[in-house]
Amino acid sequence: MTDLAAILNTDMANTATPHSPANAGEAPESAGPANYEAAVAELETLVTRMEGGALSLEESLGAYRRGSQLVSYCQQQLEKVEHQVRVLDGEVLKPLATDEDDA
What we know:
- The protein is mainly alpha-helical and about 100 residues long.
- The protein has helices spanning about 1-15, 35-50, 55-90, 100.
- Helix 1 (about 1-15) crosses helix 3 and helix 2 packs antiparallel against helix 3.
- The radius of gyration is 19 Å and the shape is elongated.
């Protein structure tokens, strides 16, 4: 949990001067997650903290920004995997078999 706090503190330090022209409209840069599973785990932690209601407005904003970065990362990873599956299946995605199909 201390790593997440450090990330959020870094985000907050990067947004300390939101009215300066150098930071206007830019999302703070922070380290990307190690992998998809790490991104999802961090997202779950962020959501829990935000839903808890104990974060200040600044902390909530930092958590929201980080969450947005993580969602974008996850979407990119899923798109990459989908592309790999399409290549493996000859550009034809096949529907998954369900238990109902077996009956």
